[in-house]
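ok here's Putative membrane protein, seq below lol
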Amino acid sequence: MAGITDRRVALLVFAGLLLFAVLPPALAGAQDEGIRLFTPYIHVAVSPGDTVTFDITATNTTGAVRSLPLAVRAPEGWRAELTAGGRKIAGLAVAPEEKETFSLTVEVPLKVERGSYGVQIVSGSSTLLSLTLDVTEAGTLQTELTSDQTNMEGTASSTFSYELRLRNRTPETQTYALLANAPEGWNVVFRVEGKDVTSVTVEPNATKRITVSLTPPSKVKAGTYKIPVRAETKGQTAEVTLEAVIRGTYGLKLTTPNEVLSTDITAGGSRTLQLVLENTGSAPLHRIELAAESVPMGWEVTFDPKTVDVLEPGKTATVNATIRADRKAIAGDYVLTLSANAAEASASQTFRITVKTSLWWGIVGFLLIAAVVFGLWELVRRYGRR
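and the structure came out like this:
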């Protein structure tokens, strides 16, 4: 009977040793000291340069005060420290059946490979708490200049504004010069926190928001313009290309070389006016047709050429308008409207035309008056003495 009892005791001791051997290190160590550590988030995602803080609760599960030294095991190149009450700590004492809180702060290095990394809180050779940090992207000691929206569209009168992010992924504070390679006539302004700047200082692993405003020249042509923008510091350059799409605007002006809008003409005669067509927009005008409106009865207006096929932005074209007045036109002022019409734009101008009697009719009138005067004089001469 005693032999059976000895065997049972031996089996129980062996089972206890086996159970102790397979317990997780964190649980085993915590049980040894009577302290349990808890944090709700033990597996988190991080980026290079991040600083992560874990709030940890230490619970004393015994009826006596328990104290133990604490340390952190982290991958090489990582920084980790334990703090409580604003100070670094290297040990902890917890009253019976009470809880104490402290924090673990982990700094992920800027240069790190993508993958999973373990951080442990240990006491001596025992692991009390294990944490896993997943680095979601590979880190480099570089500068990044990015924007969510690099393409904008507007007219020649628009101002294009872009929001950029400048990230310093180095361990030192950097001062960056802000530069742009814009086409001639374009105005580029950098703003940080509402102020115009030409440079910006960024702390290690920090990001600055920069607003870039692009203003095109007033006579800019329609099209797509690419403007490289960069941030430069010693040994490093980050660049992003901004794109501004200028929509065409349409405008047409009709005038004369000296902008005089009046002339004179004799009844039955003709007068040629030189007209100037100007494209005041930023896109070409096609098939501009000339026409006369409000033409007095019996009058005739012709154009040479009748149609202008293409007129580029900022360019002018000359058209001759020949006006022929009715031979029965009475002397005085007449109003004539000339217009130029394209599919994209149109323009018109009103001219004052003064009709003068021809010299021939003046001579005829003079002769008639002279004949009447002579006839009266002859009648007086012959019959006046009677």
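fwiw The chain has three helices and 30 strands. kinda neat tbh
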